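Fold this: ARMD1 protein
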Amino acid sequence: MTSVKEQEAIRKLMVFLQEWDSAHKVARSRILDSFIKSSNGKTEPELELEFSQGASLFLARLTAWLRMTYMYSTCLDKLLKSIGIFLSAPSGRRYLIEFLEIGGVLILLEILGLNHLKEEDKRESVKLLQLVANAGRKYKELICESYGVQSLAELLATSTSAEAQEEVQVLLDSLGRGNPKYQNQVYKGLVAVLPCASPRAQQLALQMLGVMQDLVGEAPPALVEPLLAVLGSVHLEVQYEAIQLLKALTAHQVWPALLMGLVALLTPPEKQPLSFCNKTTEDPNALCLREPMLAYIQQAAAAKAVGILAKESAEVAEELIQLKVVHGLMVAVGNQDHAPSQRHGSISLEYFVRTFPFVEEHVRKAVGHTLFQLFMDSPETWYTKLDPAQAEELASNIADIPKDMARKQSTEG
């Protein structure tokens, strides 16, 4: 027989549950506020004590209300936070299982794709998915099997909330580790984020790709084009992460294609007039960031990247010379329409000139003694001393170093 004290506790639980069942939205919102305030951080035994060993009855009501109302944003943030108290409770694995049994993962993922919901609601949904993923490999697999990677990648690419994007990063990072069956899916999902319009999403995706590179082994060929394209970002933090990822790919099968692509970016297509936007914008006369400006930004970033990569490895430097990087860098220095191209082209060119005597010889011959001396005296500001004729001469240079020269120099060294 139950004691009087136990009977009283059960009676209070039943009164509480009846109050919840009969309450409308405003009253339920107050109940959730009180629960969040009083129960955040509690363990499973503490929650069971609070609910007279019937905490699962309240969780079942929360999940049922979530199923019925998540599309309408009815107290959604408070509802998700309340469910999170159960899922995060130490020793509360059974709460997680109960939540999953009602299709909790699918509901959370659907929330991510509903455009009319608030970013705060989506962030809370991602936090719950983190709790699911942290429970172990089979739970990570469950999220991935439910097309979770695609949903998370889309949210990362389209979210306007930096906080939500960072929560997505944490979750994707978790899904990419200790989850061999789906780690390639996570990697490809991150690659799909790179062409998006959000620089923060691009930066986070590039960071995660760098971290995952050793886990997945070979990078897919599909990475080459979007990785080279993000070098056209006006955001230096995105360019930095792209170059870091390039450095991580030197021993992979995609490396030759990446090097060829980098060198090709140094010689943008013929100049075209800036075009006006066709799409409606706040300023209908605003100029789009199209060719040639996008190509010039990529040119400057590529000039910077080849210098960094060459300094990291003599072998890479030799490969670049064979791909006619010297010609490309001189083209960049001659681009008087874009000073960053000139500056980075000059700095990288200096490294090749000082490292490889045969490059020095070819560059000196191509630009003449006077111009070459100005270059050697101050590579960083060389471009400011060029007159239009000299710049044009550089931009149209035909410096052609024989492909086997770098290898020959390396062997002799």
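The first helix runs from residue 4 to 22. The two ends are 93 Å apart (CA to CA).
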